[in-house]
Write a structure and sequence with these properties.
Blueprint: E1 2-8, E2 13-23, E3 26-37, H1 41-48, H2 53-73, E4 77-82, H3 84-88, H4 92-103, E5 108-109, H5 112-122, E6 133-139, E7 144-150, E8 153-160, H6 164-169, H7 176-183, E9 195-199, H8 201-210, E10 217-219, H9 220-232, H10 235-242, H11 246-249, H12 252-266, E11 270-272, H13 278-297
Parallel strand pairs: 1-4, 4-5, 6-9
Antiparallel strand pairs: 1-2, 2-3, 6-7, 7-8, 10-11
Helix pairs in contact: 2-4, 5-13, 8-12, 9-12
Length: 298
């Protein structure tokens, strides 16, 4: 079944069309089409606290274009959500109202906890040691969602105000790293044996370029070398050498730093990169709701 989701992040707005199939115990999601517009809403919000007039106009134009595509594709279900930038923008409600009036698209602003929950419930990896602590890390433009579970049961989760756009613009609390380290303190006896799962476009790109072919596991030394190498290159050199878009080339180094910092806190040597993010998780959620409703009508 074909579904569509819109994910309005701090860095970009994504429209994903994806097919979902399987049963409740084995839901599969396969991307059909992804359209990504680098609106960079966070650049305004994290600096001046609101979305500027120019960004607002670009946002509305993007949603109008997405609306036309949604009409053509005729999907089985659709959802639209927004994350960190829209959570913090003082004119968020006003802009979302304008978008609803102009396009009919209702965008729901979700909490960091909900964002983390969607990602965690989608990224189910068959680790050889599921009894160990598993930590999920999703790095976005405006926030990093971290959740911890054991044997599939959630222990705790938190959304931290650190992301790639905040780092690029230097708009973050300098004590955030200490806050993250303190959040993990209760697990210190398990450090160096934690399963870590990373999601987001940047870690996917790093694994694709520098990781081992056909492996979802990325070694911390490989990640560190990738960070150091990319950091030595200019944005233009990253684009030319690795075929990156400009809006990927400038944020990939800050993203690598966030993952590396968390991995070093946990003293872990590997991170699993399953290539599933919030948009994929939302498709997963839509299909799961369909299966549940189908069961009720039987």
């Amino acid at each position: 079944m074909l579904y569509a989701v819109i994910d309005v992040g701090s860095n970009a707005a994504r429209l994903l069309f994806a097919n979902a199939y399987g049963d409740k115990d084995n839901i599969r999601v396969e991307k059909a089409t992804l359209i990504r517009i680098p609106l960079r809403l966070g650049k305004d919000v994290f600096h001046i606290g609101k979305i500027s007039k120019q960004k607002e106009e670009d946002f509305i134009k993007t949603m109008k274009a997405y609306k036309l595509l949604l009409e053509v594709y005729k999907t089985n279900g659709f959802k639209a959500v927004a994350t960190a930038a829209m959570r913090e923008a003082e004119n968020s409600d006003e802009i979302l109202k304008k978008i609803k009036e102009a396009t009919g698209i209702k965008i729901k602003v979700i909490s960091g906890a909900m964002e983390a929950s969607i990602i965690r419930n989608t990224n189910k990896i068959a680790f050889s040691n599921p009894e160990r602590l598993t930590v999920f890390v999703d790095v976005g433009g405006g926030s990093t969602e971290i959740s911890a579970e054991r044997n599939g049961e959630l222990i705790k989760l938190k959304s931290f105000k650190i992301g790639t756009i905040r780092m690029l613009t230097n708009e973050y609390d300098k004590y955030i790293w200490t806050s993250i380290a303190n959040w993990f303190k209760e697990f210190k006896d398990e450090f160096d044996s934690v399963n870590v799962v990373g999601s987001g476009g940047n870690i996917n790109k790093i694994n694709k370029i520098f990781g081992q072919a056909n492996s979802i596991f990325l070694n911390i030394n490989t990640l560190q070398n990738a960070h150091d190498h990319l950091n030595e290159l200019s944005i233009e050199e990253r684009m030319n050498e690795y075929g990156m878009r400009q809006d990927r080339a400038d944020v990939i180094v800050p993203a690598a730093k966030i993952y590396l910092t968390i991995m070093n806190i946990l003293k872990t040597k590997h991170i699993a990169v399953p290539k599933i993010g919030l948009a994929d998780g939302m498709v997963h959620q839509l299909y799961k709701e369909y299966l549940q409703n189908s069961q009720k009508t039987k």
